[in-house]
Amino acid sequence: MIEVTAPMNGKIIKILATVGQKVAEDEDLLIMEAMKMEMPVGSPEAGTVKEIKVQAGDTVSVEQVLIVIE
């Protein structure tokens, strides 16, 4: 199980992945806004999205778990 975490404090702008979706390594899973910049957050490894723990509009903290991949 792989936990994708927030690289910094910010706000979730858009979720690109869906539960059950197969993703490739480095594939964008969501878009965050931090320090007035949009930043994609990608998958560290290939796998299947098991759980999405955030929604668009959520404010997140650094190292907060955003998505779980198997």
Helices and strands, with pairings:
Elements: E1 2-5, E2 10-15, E3 22-23, E4 28-34, E5 37-42, E6 47-52, E7 59-60, E8 65-69
Antiparallel strand pairs: 1-8, 2-4, 2-7, 3-6, 4-5, 6-8
Backbone shape: globular
Distance between the termini: 5 Å
Count of helical stretches = 0
CATH fold-level assignment: OB fold (Dihydrolipoamide Acetyltransferase, E2P)
Mean pLDDT: 97
Q: What structural class should be given to the helix and strand makeup?
A: mainly beta
The CATH superfamily label reads RNA polymerase II/Efflux pump adaptor protein, barrel-sandwich hybrid domain
Task: Please explain how this structure is put together.
- This protein is mostly beta strands and 70 residues long.
- It has a single domain, classed as OB fold (Dihydrolipoamide Acetyltransferase, E2P) (Beta Barrel), CATH 2.40.50.
- Helices cover 0% and strands 54% of the residues.
- The protein is built from no helices and 8 strands.
- It has strands at residues 2-5, 10-15, 22-23, 28-34, 37-42, 47-52, 59-60, 65-69.
- The strands form 2 sheets. A 4-stranded antiparallel sheet has the order 1-8-6-3, with no helix packed on it. A 4-stranded antiparallel sheet has the order 5-4-2-7, with no helix packed on it.
- Strand 4 (28-34) and strand 5 (37-42) form a beta hairpin.
- It is globular and about 30 Å long.
